User: Which sequence fits this backbone?
């Protein structure tokens, strides 16, 4: 064996020997006392019994630690059986034998080492080992070998003597004594958990220093790994050697501290419970307080009391909401205060006072002042009626009874309450001749009885005049101008006129009739300027509000036509620009529509014949068109289709030649749809409800409950904050959109169904017409002050045309600038009122 290997072996064996000697000394010195913790092999370096061994070999501590950590990890239990036997044998050696042996190892451990050395020597002699540098090295080796052999022989002799002594003692003892002595002699070296004082470094943290930082995870996760976790520096904690059932049984037999040894699941090390730990467990089993020093019956300390301390018990500041008043508490207090003011509830003091007063005996103060007892208010007795002429002692002749009346008087003697008088009128010449009244005492008695028994009470009468109930409205003379009479009657259609409208300037009138024609008239003279024959009944006509275009929207069956009245009507440059704008179709990518829209709307190509008649754009729908409404800018047209369900409202964009279906689901039977004058809103009227939608956000803004049975038409105020709804059940419903979703006022101004209504753009006027023979003009003033309600005043009932069947007036329109009213009549005429 090389010299450095021999030196390393010698250090290891000497280190093991010193440990065994220390264990023997500890066993002999302990008189079966329970220690707090069993000190491990690594902690034995500082023991007092190792001082002489430390003097013999200074550098053995570090090497011993390294060997112990690598081979046995934390316990000596996992060594081979030969090493265990050597430990048992070496523990019986006396101190003198220990000193003689020096740094040598046990008998069983030294045997394989000597074999290795002999094999190494033999190899060196045969030449297989590395060659020596000179003859001096060979002589030194031989001397070292001889010295080791002498020491081994001495150790063998001592061990044989010890074995012989043990055998003689065993023969004398029974089997139970042998087992007890074996357990007493055995010494198990366990490596306890390093308990470090957390306050040693000056740290006052309450957090416990955990060796294994694996966390709260099941330990069986590490069954297939050589480690059980990680320390604070991230290094792996290697598992200690595992024991099977046989090893556990042997440990139980050999280790006297086995009954109080537990295994740490986080590190896998064995921990011996101290005396204090056992006492704490015993107290816990008895359902007592773990700490013996704790006094359960010590005086109670009131930490939270009414006394305000200078130093708070809690170290964190109060929450911000503790400084803010609670809204719920404020509302509750306000309710209580209101109830106290109104007398609905009473305080505890008031209730206690009332109970105290009820318990006291009440006495009438006979000699007290009269003002203390408040007597009921005395009411004077009703006065008797003054005597009439018939009761006079000398009544006029007409009050005296004749013979016929006397016979009737006598007939009613059995039923005197049916007579005309309660007395018989009689004439006397003078007052002296008047006899005493025979029923005087009886009547006085009945009079006193009535005053005594009949209850009397003060009746509060309200003197209200009927004129005060009528609201004070301004005089119609103060609300002029408004139309008062018919000034122009236009004839020329062969059937009833369905719709009329003014152009933006007010100089021309367009009308559509059931005779299949659209006519353009001059407003001032009523002269027909142009007639366009379309071959089908016209349901609606509407002139575009844009001043830069000359277009008229015509609802013709299932088609929507946009007509140009011609260059001779209005400004010829506007007509030319309109034709140039509509002659060129937009790009193809702008015309694309989705499948749902294209299935119900189709933009048609206008041929030369239709272009010559004035048709510039034609749009075909899958249902008949009943209503047409322009947007304020003139680029969009809202079309209402009959029985269209979810596709009843279609919005057409003129500049891009495409259509949109703004609604996915049907909300009812749609009657009409109009745009807001300024905002991107659309009003959709169904049978009983008006819904307001936001076209940008694509959501429902408001739902207006009209209270009508069937809506016929709607009109939006030019300011956009008020709405007027007409119905077939003779109602006009005014909505203030800024106020509520309920009607502000309901007007009943017609005797029949209301079919048309319109607002004036400049004047605070609105008009309505229907199946009765009157057109009603009313004043509707909307103020800028939000606190002031609109003023609604009916002004004039204008005589309408004659009724044709059940119809009278089908449409009304106001002049853009003048207070003139235009009406489409069912008697084939158009009437202008001013």
Assistant:
């Amino acid at each position: 064996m090389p010299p450095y290997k021999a030196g390393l072996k010698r250090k290891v064996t000497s280190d093991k020997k010193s440990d065994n000697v220390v264990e023997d000394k500890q066993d002999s010195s302990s008189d079966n006392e329970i220690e707090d913790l069993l000190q491990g092999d690594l902690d034995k370096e500082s023991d007092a019994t190792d001082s002489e061994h430390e003097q013999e070999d200074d550098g053995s501590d570090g090497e011993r630690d390294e060997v112990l950590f690598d081979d046995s990890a934390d316990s000596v239990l996992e060594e081979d059986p030969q090493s265990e036997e050597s430990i048992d044998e070496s523990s019986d050696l006396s101190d003198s034998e220990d000193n003689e042996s020096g740094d040598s190892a046990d008998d069983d451990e030294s045997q394989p080492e000597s074999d290795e050395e002999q094999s190494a020597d033999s190899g060196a002699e045969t030449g297989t080992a590395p060659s020596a540098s000179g003859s001096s090295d060979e002589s030194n080796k031989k001397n070292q070998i001889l010295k080791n052999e002498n020491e081994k022989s001495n150790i063998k002799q001592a061990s044989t003597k010890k074995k012989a002594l043990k055998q003689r003692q065993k023969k004398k003892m029974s089997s139970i004594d042998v087992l007890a002595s074996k357990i007493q002699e055995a010494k198990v070296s366990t490596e306890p958990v390093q308990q470090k004082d957390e306050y040693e470094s000056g740290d006052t943290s309450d957090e416990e220093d955990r060796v294994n930082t694996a966390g709260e995870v099941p330990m069986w996760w590490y069954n297939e790994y050589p480690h059980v976790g990680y320390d604070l520096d991230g290094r792996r904690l290697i598992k200690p050697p595992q024991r099977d059932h046989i090893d556990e049984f042997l440990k139980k037999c050999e280790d006297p501290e086995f009954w109080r040894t537990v295994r740490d699941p986080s590190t896998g090390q064995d921990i011996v419970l101290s005396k204090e730990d056992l006492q704490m467990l015993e107290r816990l089993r008895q359902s007592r307080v773990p700490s013996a020093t704790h006094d359960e019956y010590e005086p109670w300390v009131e930490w939270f009391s009414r006394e305000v301390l200078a130093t708070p018990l809690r170290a964190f500041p109060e929450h911000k909401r503790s400084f803010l008043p609670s809204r719920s508490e404020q509302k509750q207090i306000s309710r209580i205060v209101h109830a106290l003011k109104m007398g609905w509830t009473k305080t505890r003091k008031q209730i206690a006072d009332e109970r105290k007063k009820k318990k006291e005996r009440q006495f009438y103060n006979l000699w007290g002042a009269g003002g203390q007892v408040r007597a009921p208010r005395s009411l004077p007795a009703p006065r008797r009626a003054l005597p009439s002429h018939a009761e006079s002692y000398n009544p006029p002749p007409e009050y005296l009874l004749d013979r016929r009346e006397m016979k009737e008087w006598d007939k009613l003697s059995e039923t005197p309450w049916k007579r005309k008088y309660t007395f018989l009128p009689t004439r006397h010449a003078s007052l002296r001749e008047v006899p005493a009244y025979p029923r005087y005492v009886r009547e006085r008695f009945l009079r006193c009885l009535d005053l005594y028994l009949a209850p009397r009470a003060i009746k509060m009468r309200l003197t209200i005049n009927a004129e005060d109930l009528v609201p004070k409205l301004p005089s119609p003379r103060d609300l002029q101008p408004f139309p008062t009479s018919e000034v122009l009657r236009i004839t020329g259609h062969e059937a009833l006129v369905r719709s009329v409208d003014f152009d933006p300037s007010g100089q021309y009138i367009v009308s559509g009739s059931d005779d299949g024609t659209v006519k353009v008239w001059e407003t001032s003279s009523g002269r027909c300027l142009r007639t366009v024959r379309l071959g089908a009944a016209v349901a609606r006509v509407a002139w575009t509000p844009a001043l830069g275009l000359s277009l008229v929207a015509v609802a013709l069956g299932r088609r929507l036509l946009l007509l140009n009245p011609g260059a001779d009507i209005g400004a010829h440059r506007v007509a030319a620009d309109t034709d140039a704008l509509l002659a060129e179709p937009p790009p193809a990518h702008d015309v694309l529509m989705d499948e749902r829209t294209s299935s119900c709307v189709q933009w048609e190509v206008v041929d030369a014949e239709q272009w010559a008649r004035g048709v510039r754009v034609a749009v075909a729908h899958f249902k008949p068109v009943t209503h047409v409404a322009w947007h304020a800018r003139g680029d969009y047209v809202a079309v209402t289709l009959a029985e269209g369900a979810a596709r009843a409202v279609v919005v057409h964009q003129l500049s891009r030649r495409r259509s949109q279906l703004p609604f996915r689901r049907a909300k009812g039977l749609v009657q009409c749809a109009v745009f807001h004058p300024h905002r991107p809103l659309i009003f959709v009227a169904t049978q009983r409800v008006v819904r307001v939608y936001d076209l940008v956000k694509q959501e429902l803004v408001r739902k207006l409950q009209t209270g009508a049975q069937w809506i016929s038409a709607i009109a939006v105020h030019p300011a956009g904050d008020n709405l007027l709804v007409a119905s077939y059940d003779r109602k006009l419903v005014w909505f203030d959109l800024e106020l509520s979703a309920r009607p502000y006022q309901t007007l009943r101004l017609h005797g029949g169904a209301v079919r048309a209504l319109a607002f004036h753009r400049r004047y605070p006027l609105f008009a309505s017409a229907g199946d009765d023979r009157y057109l009603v003009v009313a004043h509707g003033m909307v103020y800028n002050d939000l606190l002031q309600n609109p003023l609604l005043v009916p002004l004039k009932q204008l005589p309408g045309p004659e009724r044709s069947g059940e119809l009278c007036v089908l449409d009304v329109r106001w002049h853009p600038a003048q207070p003139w009213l235009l009406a489409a009549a069912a008697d084939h005429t158009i009437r202008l009122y001013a």
